[in-house]
Amino acid sequence: MDYDAVVIGGGVIGSAIIRYLSLYKTKVLLVEKEEDISSGTTKANSGIVHAGYDPAPGTLKAKLNVKGARMIREESKRLHFDYNTNGAMVVSFSADDDYKLDELYKRGLENGVEDMEIISGEEARKIEPLLSLDITKCLYLKSSGIVCPFSLTEALAENAYANGGEFRFNTKVENVEKSEGGYKITTDSGATITTRAVINAAGVFGDEINNMVSKKKLHITARRGSYMLFDGETKGMFNTTIFQLPSEKGKGVLVTPTVHGNLMIGPNSTDTFPKDDTATTAEDLEFISKEALKTTSSIPFRKVITSFCGLRAHEDSGDFIIGEAEDAPCFFNATGIESPGLSASLAIGEMMASLVSEKLKLEKKENPILEREAPIRPKEMTTIERNALIKNNPSYGKIVCRCEEISEGEIIDAITRPLGAKSLDGIKRRVRAGMGRCQGGFCSPKVMELLEKYASIPFDEITKNSKGSNITVEE
Hints:
It is built from 12 helices and 22 strands. By secondary structure, it is α+β, with helices and mostly antiparallel strands. The strands form 5 sheets. Strands 1, 2, 9, 10, 11, 12, 19 and 20 form an 8-stranded mixed beta sheet that branches. It has helices at residues 12-21, 60-79, 98-111, 121-127, 149-162, 206-211, 282-295, 341-360, 383-392, 408-416, 424-431, 444-454; strands spanning 3-8, 28-31, 48-49, 83-84, 88-92, 116-120, 137-141, 145-147, 166-168, 173-179, 182-187, 192-200, 220-230, 241-244, 254-257, 263-266, 270-272, 304-315, 321-324, 331-335, 399-401, 406-407.
């Protein structure tokens, strides 16, 4: 066998799984069809670390949400990813609906959520003055947080790599079949990979991977959700994440700061096919705009700098599907991972590693690497610290992205770190060059020059993200 285990999918779930598996004495590989981690569902979500009040008690969603949120808070200090415990509110607009907050509060208690209380609309507006006067009551969740999904996934993948985990990008799985002693995976290049165990973390395509080997068929519906992101000038308008009362299709349109300070609103929820359709539409953006205006009338729509659409993997059962397939020994699913999947990601990774290690009889490493070197961020340094850094390495004094004040040194680091960036989006997700007001209009040519030099990618082969998204074309 080539490997003890192969993880299919390089989002936050796959990266969490390989991170925790890499803490065992095992040979493990992650395969991802795109050029980088965070290229599917993970790249476009709200970044909320939910407290855990919403999932039905007794479900995997409930159990892993609360545990995972706690793990994210703890691991942010060791793996150095962007996280902030900013709190959240679930708001009611009618006295007739206030009882629903009591139900959510009781559910939260049953799920083990800490630091929550029900407060009046007046009390809520003392915390967030721009909230609508129509809000009557709210469930205030002090343990809720926000995280950068890219930063989290990058940290998990880098730490897995440091512990011996292997990665293959631009590698699409075409088939998985049972073979003697394990499984044979066929990729789009025609290459085959043999492994004792397979872990399916393929997002909205997880049902297709499962159905290749199991007679117990799964069915995943891809649900689109659009967002609007505002200029950095909106920092401080809201410090708390604001939810409306949830519905059967999710937690509704929220108003939230991102971990980097931008205001963001969204998402809606629309079933879509084909599954990878992430186009934004005027109808979607109009819907989330109207819904967000129920929460606050103070949304500066003229400061929108971009809109985007993400996908959620809704499996018909309604819960996470985590574990070994009944009729396919050593084939494990981590699928149907919709909200609160990001919040639960580390708990899912730990749970899956435990299941696989027990099945394969793996031993834990005596001294695994549990910490990750923090990226250098000059903007967060004192003037004295920054001057000393620039004196030692002048590239940190050359600003490439003016909107986000990102230096040449930071971009070089993003390219040359383990599992470094190979595209413009890869740079953007790691250090935010291109995330600001001009959306890369100013800095992209210089970023491309650095990719050509430090990633050894010919200039005319540099892409925005996946194959075919080349920036330059021949006339």
